[in-house]
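Lab notebook, bench 4. Still working through the backlog of constructs that have no structural model yet. Next entry is a single chain of 58 residues. Request: give me the structure tokens for it.
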Amino acid sequence: MGYEDAVMAAEFIECDTIIGCHFDTFGYIKIDKNKAIQHFSEKGKKLIIPEINQNIIL
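Model written out:
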């Protein structure tokens, strides 16, 4: 699932804060992080793309 589909999924389940995972692990699933964050923002959602070993407090 690309970030475009992820936005639709987030809308479907009425979720406004999304934590990205399974990105940039293989060449086939690399994303433009800034473009993805902007795409979510345009839909009124917040995309969190964590760094390796980053803790997230919700």
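Notes after review: The mean pLDDT is 89. The beta strands are 17-19, 46-48. Flag for follow-up if needed.
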